[in-house]
Amino acid sequence: xxxxxxxxxxxxxxxxxxxFDSNHEVTGGYASDLLSDVIANAEKxxxxxxxxxxxxxxxVAVLKELAGIILINDREPxxxxxxxxxxxxxxxxxxxxxxxxxxxxxxxxxxxxx
Amino acid sequence: xxxxxSISKLQELAYELKIRDIMTTRVTTVLPTQNIKDLRKxxxxxxxxxxxxxxxxxxxxIISIEDFIRSLVRGENNKTVQDIMTHHVETLCADEPxxxxxxxxxxxxxxxxxxxERKTGELAGIITKSDIIKGMLRKLEIDYxxxxxxxxxxxxxxxxxxxxxxxxxxxxxxxxxxxxxxGEASSRLKKTLQRMGLPLEIVRRAAIASYEIEMNIVIxxxxxxxxxxxxxxxxxxxxxxxGPGIPDIQQAMQPGFSTATTTIREMxxxxxxxxxxxxxxxxxxxxxxxxxxxxxxxxxIYLKDQNAQT
Amino acid sequence: xTIEDIKKILKAETLTGEKLLDREVKRVCxxxxxxxxxxxxxxxxxxxxxxxxxxxxxxxxxxxxxAVCFVRGKKPDERTIQLARTKNIPILTTNLSMFESxxxxxxxxxxxxxxxxx
Lengths: 114, 310, 118
Description:
The structure holds three protein chains of three kinds. Chain A contains five helices and seven strands.
């Protein structure tokens, strides 16, 4: 079973939020920039890959009990997004890589999505 | 266009060109009753190696220098054309594409085919392999020259025009809040710039910038105008709207900053990349905005640098 | 690799542009935000997206991309397909998710179309 602490160093992700459990298990991945899509289709303990930085992403992660969020393409979270992530204990991870490559590498680590 | 290699261009031409375009129309013909001794002289004088045989305006055979030589080898010298000619004649119609002639040369191995009019059956001309090669080359040359002229025109679009002030303006109306038609103006602009022959990279940059501007007008205002002006050495894209105005332009230019609603975001826009994109793809960008009055965006793309690169 | 290969890998269906599937593709862009596509994508890429509105087609046109493949079995409306047809933009649709689609194509050696500068 993959955990956040396995994925973070492997993909050289930079945690933006500090308050999260790095032992949180990750059962799958979901890549989307459409919030309604994530709400409808992502599963519990999935890692979400997106370039949306709006604070609403934290609400979605809480609602769907996601393992965390990877912000791609060097995106910085909005200040409100970051403070909400800290408050809710959601892992908010940053990377300069684009979505296709992040997902490709996660897939090679054995992560699947639906 | 440039990706076309010359072979496929030739194939294309062979379909496009009609036999009529490349055949020889002034055909020397002989009568069936002529002595073959005359034949040698006729062929020599017209420097041809074969000719149709005509009787009462009708094509009845074809005779070549090979027929003549074979006859000589057989020791015949008092024969007439009809004795040694080929009676069964393979012909082509003048309105057929050149590719048919190519196929026929390959199939029969003959040196020439008489060409007839499809409707009347009259002899219209004659075609040899050399006619095909010459005809295709001529057409290629014309096409090439036209392309050159076209390219020249595009790259010098405004240098050659003599006037005190030059400005070609393309204006497009953009409806606000109409997501059904959003993108159409930029699509039309892109097509027009392509047709004018502007370098592809310039067209692409202009298209992306105008599309982002157009989406902004659609999302945030009740409509406006998108204008592309070609000035000497500059392509300028400007937009004017009577929208709410931008309170803080510097903030609006920050990548990721957006005031878009969730609905807009769900449509794939409003991620705060619009204006930064416009800046990224143009060489100069000025925004003036008055709250409650509207916004004007003026951008410039320099054509010169692009020319220097190519 | 061609669009046809991508179609096979993703077990996708062609909605328009069946005759254009022999186009060469090396790069893939995965995004649902069109400004991001316009900003960071090299031309000649295939766009993987879950966004099926008409703006997707305009974006592909503006950015000189090769084709679009919709994920999660999404299909655009007839007007969008029609627009793509007139602009010679092939549309594929796959039942796989964005995540699975990216994973499979990445494993087959496709590279990201990402670029920093215009």
